[in-house]
Amino acid sequence: MGTMQINLLYTLVIALVVYFAGVALVDRIGVLKRFCIPAPVVGGCLVAIVLAVADGFGGTRVSFDMGLKDTLLIAFFTTVGLAADARLLMKGGKKLAIFLAISAVFIVVQNATGLLAAWALDLHPVFGLFGGSITLTGGHGTGAAYAARFGETMNLRGAMELTMAFATGGLVVGALMGGPLGTYLVRRHRLHGPSRVKVEKSKKEAPSAGGVTAQSFLVALLIVLICLAGGRVLAQAMQGSGVILPDFLFALLLGVVVRNIASFSGLFQVDDASIEMLGSVALSLFLVMALMSMKLLDLASMAGPLMIILALQAVVMVAYAAFVTFRVMGSNYDAAVMAAGHVGFGFSSTAAALAVMRSITERSGHSPLAFLIVPLVGAFFIDVVNALIIQGFLVLPTFGFGS
């Protein structure tokens, strides 16, 4: 068997080519666009399949230099923290707190479901967490962070490939489930939002965002790098403490601190458009690099258990959103849209949640409350809560980390 080594420069070139190939496929294949499957996921998975065929039939393996992958991941989560302005968070009020509590309880349910499934299938309990909130609520980024940590501490073979498979499966299933559930709730309870006329008028009256300049981009990059450096110092200080937290959490929290110091002191500015662009670039490149380096052949033996756990989690997610999220949030139109959004980020990603919600509101009327609360919880709060709850599960005797 031969192995082809690809250095960092060529890895970056290939990653960008793969990304644009994914963009082209999403633009041309209706089902990919309809269900908002991200271009990096499409391109990265396609390359992984091609390389698996080359390995299986030609005996040729390709090894990419992934030296930037972890940095890109942490940079993305840093931009999530830098987008968390406390003044905006306070606008959600009581509804925001309730929705966060509902989402936190579901993380516990999701992990318990994963652990029970792993026990029933006679698998290692960590497999249950990988098929729980680590990848489904957490997505590709959180899954990759924990896969790297467990790969080091528990010497788990194929942990990265496993988490990427769970996260990708969740992305597809979550995008497929959210829209139909929200539509069912709206029709079943005869709900509707404001008329489309009012929505279009409000869009015309809204001020347009400024563009990104070279200076604003470089300032944003400097702030992200400072948070990355500070987060690394904090992560190293926590080593040996017995607490297993992903490295991205420290940079994310520093991002929150920096953003709100800027907001309340006025000493400097954090440009939202530049931060969003940095985050988008970092996440896109990370996903492409992580997915195109997947060793799919190593996952062949786990295909059956993976599908069983995903199917079970899908049933639990839909039931929880319909009977808990919808009812606790008020059983009204906003609650229906938020329930659909909960399926999106609870089983996939915040981006999928927003796409699902938008598809519903385009037909049934706008929901300003849902579009305020769901992104705040799904893009920021849930990452912190998820990390804390996962840590709570890891102290259980079955994992052996609590002693």
Keyword list:
403 residues; mainly alpha; Na+/H+ antiporter like fold; two-stranded parallel sheet; 75% helix
Q: Give the strand order, joined by hyphens, for the main sheet.
A: 1-2
Alpha plus pi helix count: 17
Radius of gyration: 21 Å
CATH topology group:
Na+/H+ antiporter like fold
Unreliable residue runs: 196-209
User: What string, H for helix and E for strand, traces the elements in order?
Assistant: EHHHEHHHHHHHHHHHHHH
Alpha-carbon distance between the termini?
43 Å
| Rounded average pLDDT | 82
Gross morphology: globular
Number of domains: 1
Strand content: under 5%
Number of strands: 2
In short:
By secondary structure, the chain is mainly α.
Q: Could you explain the architecture of this structure?
A:
The chain is an all-alpha fold and 403 residues long. It has one domain: Up-down Bundle (Na+/H+ antiporter like fold). It is built from 17 helices and two strands. It has helices at residues 8-28, 30-34, 39-58, 69-82, 86-91, 93-120, 125-130, 139-153, 159-188, 196-205, 214-238, 247-265, 272-292, 303-328, 333-346, 350-364, 368-394, and strands at residues 2-6, 60-64. Strands 1-2 form a two-stranded parallel ribbon. The protein is globular.
Layout of secondary structure:
Blueprint: E1 2-6, H1 8-28, H2 30-34, H3 39-58, E2 60-64, H4 69-82, H5 86-91, H6 93-120, H7 125-130, H8 139-153, H9 159-188, H10 196-205, H11 214-238, H12 247-265, H13 272-292, H14 303-328, H15 333-346, H16 350-364, H17 368-394
Parallel strand pairs: 1-2
Helix pairs in contact: 1-3, 1-13, 3-13, 4-11, 4-12, 4-13, 6-14, 6-17, 8-9, 9-14, 9-15, 9-16, 11-12, 11-13, 14-15, 15-16, 15-17, 16-17
